[in-house]
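Z., the sequence and structure:
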Amino acid sequence: MSYPASEQDNAFLKSISWGSKRSYCAFLIHFAFILLANTLYIALGLNGHESGALAISLMLAVLVSSVTAANYLYRWIEAPSVKLKV
């Protein structure tokens, strides 16, 4: 028995599909961004602050940067490489 998908279910499934196509690219790139953020955090002396809000905001920036870079890596490298005849 099949149920018609609602508009909300359809959007959820599209976002899962979008993310799953780019997940390997995100796996490849995320660690480099984390290391860069950690190095900058320590090198600039930002670790001396009492509040962890700066560290959390830096990690959120790393998350956004990783997802953006994974998207471009997928679009410019992975997707075109599927068409190559090797």
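Residues 29-86 form one domain. DSSP finds two helices and no strands in the chain.

Let me know what you think.
H.
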